[in-house]
Input
Amino acid sequence: ITILTPDLRILRANRAAHTTFGLSYGDLVDRYCYEVFHNRSHPCLHCPVHQPDKLHGSETGLVYHDRLNKTFEVTSSPVCDDDGELLYLVHSARDITQKLKDDAERNILSAAIRQTSESVVITDISGTIQYVNPSYSKITGYSQDELIGRHISFLNINPDSGALFEELLKRLKKGDVWQGQLVNEKKDGSHFTENVTIFPIVTDKGDVTNFVAIKRDVTKEEQLQRQLQQAMKMEAIGTLAGGIAHDFNNILSAMIGYGQIAKSRLDLDDPCRRISSRFFWPATGPPTWSSRFSPSAAGIRRRTSTPSSSSTSSRKRSSCSAARCRPPSSCTSPSTTTVRLSSPTPASCTRW
Output
């Protein structure tokens, strides 16, 4: 606190003023306030606490001290005589530097809470809602006025939500942090799932004053997770089915191979040979010898004339050696070019 003349010269100053400016007691006397605050040689043009046309009432303003890097809230009160003439000015300065920093920090935190996509709910120690951010109102469909004053459990669909939250509040009052998942109901009746973290606000003395709940809607994530699990199940089933089919084909291939070997050792007129053809050939039936061993495919030219007797024997021997795979009936006439058999696997030629 300082007492100044109308021309802003300091007449008296208390010890707190000297301590604030780092001066010995009495060093402020006979100095001007603009010299102390701004290191200037003349009054400030726009002094927030000294306006000559408004000297009949108190004025309050903020004054920044460059050297101290501090902001002061200064209140100037005039002292007048009986005729209304100004005699003195009483300045009361209060350091509000830390208060301004705290206010700025609170403003930033408040803006962050309002603009975050996460839901923020603040309650008292009994669980009564005192604040909700816009995100929570948007998710639930309730306005802030509709939510404030309600108990935090009123949206929960669990029939035992009352007992659940009572136990939860007991843990929070001990200073514990609770994390879990809750299913709540929106205003339109639809349900949503949210991950919740609730923690207490504790004072410097260790007293719990409030609870803060940070919530995140995970309904879509849960749906995607269920779809992914279903896709993984189907993939596992497909892999299992493919493995079983592969193993079955391996066993079946061996069975078919042994069956064909057994069939090839049967006589042509054996009834079992005709029956076995149903199992070891496709449904379209066995291929014909005319398509597999036609003379054109074997490079044999069709002959329309009867061969000479001198070469008959040699031709028979050559045709027999070239057609070892033909059945005996194909060797009866050298001029025969196409023979159909009921069996795709002929026995070896034994007549020749």
Q: What stands out?
A: The chain is about 35% helix and 20% strand.
